[in-house]
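can u do me a favor
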């Protein structure tokens, strides 16, 4: 219990530090976002409107930095992440809530699928060294070296241009309204297949290599040899003794992957013009939309911290040594 409280305290402190840094960095950057918005509207805003915009964006020059910081915390607790410059007057919370389901669906499914497939293949490849499956490692090494976006461009060139099987961009057909009807769901699945397969192919190779190397190391441990000497079934030794201990490093990596699901695969979403949180972040950076960048960064940071906390809890369940040390 003491260990758990220490970890919770650490993550709470990390969350406070991330939120504080997230507040100060945009205010230290050069430029005036309100002035940029005024330039976009070509001087159509009055002086009173300009003052109102500064207050709206939390950039009131008459207010001290400390009062702005306290107001920022108050807005966070009320769920207000500010107003976007790019999508003015839409709030950042609304933009994130609209784009987040696309990223969670695409990245969530592909991350879990690549982890399960890669870990399973890695277990067998490491346990049965020298088999045909183990001899395929050079191929997985080559695939893991290919960047997501480059594989995405190749997929578009082959399966959207050369052979127009899948669409090259978008998340659903134009003219459809998002809903739970089969026409929209089937269109979303159709548009998400190509980027999803691209992510799985790119990510699965890393899980295979990591799990295979850990299985090779664990197979030589004394407790595995003792399990063999007891005459336990090979399948039980492989999963209950070798794989259970070999998977521990992958659990940490998987937790980080779950955290970065929220951030999306920025380059993949850019290549496929997929309306996820990564594509929204790209638009915010291009337009110097500080509130939007601030909201996305904060959301990603908190998601990574939450995923690491879950990984610590899973470690306590899987590894008895961690419980004894705690």
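np, heres the sequence
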């Amino acid at each position: 219990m003491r260990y758990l409280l220490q970890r919770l305290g650490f993550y709470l402190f990390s969350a406070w530090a991330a939120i504080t840094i997230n507040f100060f960095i945009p205010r230290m950057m050069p430029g005036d976002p309100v002035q940029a918005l005024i330039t976009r509207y070509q001087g159509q805003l009055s002086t009173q409107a300009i003052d109102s915009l500064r207050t709206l964006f939390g950039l009131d020059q008459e207010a001290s930095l400390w009062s702005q910081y306290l107001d920022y915390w108050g807005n966070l607790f009320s769920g207000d992440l500010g107003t976007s410059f790019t999508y003015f007057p839409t709030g950042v919370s609304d933009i994130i809530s609209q784009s987040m389901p696309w990223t969670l669906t695409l990245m969530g499914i592909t991350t879990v699928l690549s982890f399960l497939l890669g870990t399973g293949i890695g277990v067998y490849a490491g346990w049965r060294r020298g088999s045909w499956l183990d001899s395929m490692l050079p191929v997985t090494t080559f695939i893991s070296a290919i960047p997501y976006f480059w594989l995405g461009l190749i997929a578009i060139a082959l399966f959207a241009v050369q052979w127009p099987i899948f669409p090259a961009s978008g998340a659903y057909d134009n003219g459809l309204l998002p809903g739970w009807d089969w026409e929209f769901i089937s269109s979303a699945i159709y548009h998400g297949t190509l980027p999803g397969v691209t992510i799985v192919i790119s990510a699965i190779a890393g899980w295979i290599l990591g799990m295979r190397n850990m299985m090779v190391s664990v197979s030589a441990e004394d407790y595995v040899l003792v399990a063999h000497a007891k005459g336990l079934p090979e399948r039980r030794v492989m999963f209950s003794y070798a794989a259970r201990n070999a998977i521990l490093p992958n659990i940490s990596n998987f937790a980080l992957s779950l955290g970065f699901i929220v951030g999306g695969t920025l380059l993949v979403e850019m290549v496929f013009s997929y309306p996820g949180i990564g594509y929204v972040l790209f638009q915010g950076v291009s337009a110097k939309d500080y509130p939007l960048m601030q909201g996305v960064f904060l959301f990603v940071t908190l998601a990574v911290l939450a995923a690491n906390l879950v990984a610590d809890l899973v470690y306590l369940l899987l590894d008895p040594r961690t419980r004894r040390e705690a």
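The chain has 15 helices and no strands. hope that helps!!
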